[in-house]
Design a protein that fits this description.
Blueprint (H helix, E strand, L loop, with lengths): L17 H8 L1 H16 L3 H19 L4 H16 L3 H18 L5 H9 L6 H6 L21
Length: 152
């Protein structure tokens, strides 16, 4: 070389996190993040899906506030995924928080209230139990005799 420095390598752009998508795209990003978490969860990557959606919820809550529609939607979906893995206490906490926020911040006729209530009681999903690889999974396998949803 003749003393001329090589040009710097092009900066590599890190892939977007779900939180970046939510903060940049609003509801469309939330829909994408929730859909991706459901797909990963259905494939048995429960820990990854739950962790990623919890991060999105934290970031969306920081950006939009606890009483935001975004926060309620993500929290309700997080509870739904927890319920499918058998983590009913965590699911009840998520749903309880989302439904309390809906009661406090949404008008009575808002359709989001019904959507949140529907997510509070997922159907028994024996297919998911068969693929669940949740590392902390301590819930017993479903026997087919499910207890009624405590949220309703």
């Amino acid at each position: 070389m003749t003393g001329i420095a090589a040009p710097p390598a092009p900066a590599t752009r890190l892939p977007d996190t779900r939180a970046d998508v939510v903060l940049r795209c609003g509801n469309r990003g939330i829909d994408e993040a929730v859909a991706q978490a459901h797909a990963e969860h259905a494939a048995g990557a429960c820990d990854d899906a739950l962790r990623a959606l919890a991060t999105v919820h934290t970031d969306a809550t920081r950006a939009y506030g606890h009483g935001s529609r975004e926060s309620m939607i993500i929290l309700a979906h997080l509870g739904y995924l927890y319920a499918l893995c058998g983590w009913h206490d965590l699911a009840r906490r998520c749903h309880g928080t989302a439904l309390t926020a809906a009661t406090r911040y949404l008008p009575p006729a808002d359709t989001l209230r019904a959507q949140l209530a529907a997510l509070a009681c997922p159907p028994g999903d024996t297919i998911h139990v068969g693929v669940c690889r949740h590392q902390s999974h301590a819930a017993p396998r479903r026997s087919g005799t499910e207890t009624p949803c405590p949220i309703r």
